[in-house]
Design a protein that fits this description.
This protein is α+β, with helices and mostly antiparallel strands. Helix content is 33%, strand content 25%. The strands form five sheets. The chain has a seven-stranded mixed β-sheet, with helices on both faces.
């Protein structure tokens, strides 16, 4: 069987690998100049680094397996994280239970309730019981208004903006439950995060090379114009003005892109896709001559123009990036937000006062370079009863499938789950192939 895939991110590549292992031909179309999707990279100081910050957890076993299969297991480094939270103008370490005890930004009774709630959630395996309640309602009841306003409220607003009050508790449960699962040693108090030296794109590039070596074709810099459907079945992909015929097609694109390239989707299925809202992911990346702080991951619980400051070179050494200190200033914003129309210079100016909240000594003269990256499908908004809103992988069009981050649930988006989803949809497609008649080649039809 001949399969076309839209998107050369980790999901599309893992699906391609499984399909090839089952003896099927694969062609991938990717609009970017390289494989990787949302794990796209750029160069700083002679080394590659992600445009959007990335790390993995110890329980991201699928991602670890792929890194090892691509021969890079020895380059996967596990490092104790150094996280903190900015609240009321102060930076509070936020890793261990003792850090929570010292978190004076909320009353002591709220700290106790916050700790108990986290311990409770880490022991809850049945996420389904949280399906019908919002994160705000559950957390306010569990930790009180002061505790919610001091930790979870600002972080939810920073992640989901005007949609924060609609976010389902399952999303927050996943953050707490999976985060604790990555803790090792000392009674599970120390969190370890993984990073692949030279960037995660190294294993993704090798995965792309593997697909090519097995006979697959990857068209880079190729924008898909349309997924062509005739008489209720997929016929192929139109790209570069040419129709490429396929027996099956897998779209790995966000819903908002899927709707544009697949206009023939059944109305009921299209309506399901349209229900899911997205927040844009934006990252202003700075290369500095010195660090801003000594923290790797700083969550912002004050009213700043960005929601997190991830200082990558407090995790990996700056020597790997030509001595540059790399800082990500992250934001999740709704469509139409002013930042989307700004340049990197303009965003930097609008973020400058916030950077000085983190380090009052910061001066623009520290800056060597800056970049601004934007992604319209950065974060699906996970609402209550989301399990009932997840689009099926089968689209209702014969031979046409969809797999993207809106189907990662109850976990949140990430490399690990996208790789797993790619394997799952490939398995589904292989299972369906017995009922699909291969379409004749153009020469046979002539």
């Amino acid at each position: 069987m001949n399969v076309g895939i839209v998107g050369a991110g980790v999901l599309g590549l893992s699906a391609a690998k499984v399909l090839q292992e089952q003896g099927h031909s694969v062609t991938i179309f990717e609009s970017r100049p390289d494989v990787g999707g949302q794990v796209v990279t750029f160069e700083v100081g002679g080394n590659r680094i992600e445009c959007f910050y990335h790390h993995i957890f110890t329980n991201d076993t699928v991602c670890i397996r792929y890194i090892e299969e691509m021969g890079l297991g020895a380059d996967l480094r596990w490092i104790e994280s150094k996280s903190a939270i900015l609240r009321k103008g102060r930076i509070f370490p936020f890793v261990t239970p003792l850090d929570l005890v010292k978190y004076s930004a909320v009353p002591i009774a709220s700290r106790v309730r916050l700790g108990l709630a986290a311990l409770w959630l880490r022991r809850q395996h049945d996420w389904k019981k949280y399906e019908g309640v919002t994160a705000r309602k559950w957390m306010e009841r569990a930790v009180g208004k002061a505790g919610f306003d001091g930790v979870w409220g600002p972080l939810l607003r920073g992640k989901f903006a005007d949609e924060a009050d609609n976010v389902g508790m399952v999303w927050l449960w996943g953050k707490v439950y999976l985060r604790f699962a990555s803790r090792k040693g000392a009674g599970g108090l120390k969190e370890q995060l993984g990073y692949l030296s030279g960037s995660f794109n190294r294993y993704i590039e090798k995965l792309g090379e593997h697909v090519r070596a097995e006979g697959g074709v990857i068209h880079l810099n190729t924008l898909v114009e349309e997924v062509v459907v005739e008489e209720g079945s997929v016929r192929g992909i139109r790209a570069g003005g040419e129709l490429h015929a396929f027996d099956q097609v897998l779209m790995t694109t966000p819903n908002i892109i899927t709707r544009k390239i697949a206009p023939a989707l059944p109305a009921a299925y299209a309506a399901v896709l349209d229900k899911v809202k997205y927040q844009w992911a934006t990252c202003l990346v700075l290369a500095l001559d010195r660090p801003v702080s000594d923290t790797y991951w700083l969550s912002v619980a004050d009213d700043l123009a960005f929601v997190a400051c991830i200082e990558h070179t407090n995790f990996m050494p700056p020597e790997e990036y030509g001595g540059n200190h790399i800082v990500y200033l992250s934001n999740y914003i709704p469509p139409g937000h002013p930042v989307l129309a700004m340049s990197a210079d303009e965003v930097f100016e609008s973020y400058l006062s916030g950077i000085k909240k983190i380090n009052p000594l910061f001066d623009p003269s520290w800056l060597r370079q800056k970049w601004l990256f934007k992604d319209p499908g950065g974060q699906p908004v996970i609402t209550t009863n989301y399990a009932k809103q997840i689009p099926e992988m089968r689209t209702g069009v014969g031979g046409l499938y969809l797999a993207n981050t809106t189907q990662v649930y109850p976990e949140d988006r990430g490399q690990n789950y996208s790789l797993r989803l790619g394997e799952q949809v490939a398995g589904l497609m292989v299972g369906d192939m017995a009922d699909v008649e291969p379409i004749p080649s153009p020469a046979a039809r002539a």
